[in-house]
């Protein structure tokens, strides 16, 4: 109903003149995302090549558990990202938008470790009750869930870097981290 009663044109239009500036601004952001995801892709390939398919199943369970704690900080910071992009052009100083990043990170640094500790405490009972065949995955889950704490904080800074248009300056750091 709303679509039929609206008075705007539904015709798809593309302004080719905007493509160049969009690609120029967007390629570092896309590359940051690809570089950030690359260690996970590489890690899975190495484990599959050297360990075998049954151990990959244990690893996948560990990755799924770690994503729970990794994605929560990402969602929180993604909800703050529009505020970063709105406030920075108005003020022009990175220090003015730093509280939008610092307050969620400070809150998450207090909540996420407690959630991970509680999860780790109940982990053996959860695996024993629901997935007893995956008991060998418990050590990998423990390592990855604590590692996801730091990964979540690292990805949480990306919207701040993009908001201040600093994505080109950090690409070298991202590439160096892959090399290491």
What would a concise description of this structure say?
Helices cover 83% and strands 0% of the residues. By secondary structure, the protein is mainly α. It is globular.
Helices and strands in order, then pairings?
Layout: H1 2-5, H2 19-50, H3 53-91, H4 94-130, H5 138-156, H6 158-163, H7 167-179
How would you portray this structure in words?
Helices cover 83% and strands 0% of the residues. The chain is mainly α and 180 residues long. Helix 2 packs parallel to helix 7 and helix 3 (53-91) packs parallel to helix 5 (138-156). It starts with a helix and ends with a helix.
Task: Label this structure with key terms.
180 residues; mainly alpha; 7 helices; 83% helix; globular
| Assembly status | single chain
Quickly give the structural class: mainly alpha
Helix content: over 70%
For the biggest sheet, the summary is: none
Number of helices: 7
The geometry reads as: globular
Round the Cα radius of gyration to an integer and report it. 21 Å
How far apart, in Å, are the first and last alpha carbons? Answer: 55 Å
Number of strands: 0
Instruction: Give the integer mean of the pLDDT values.
Output: 82
- Low-pLDDT residue intervals, each spanning 5 or more residues: none
Q: What amount of the residues lies in strands? A: under 5%
Reading the helices and strands in chain order gives HHHHHHH
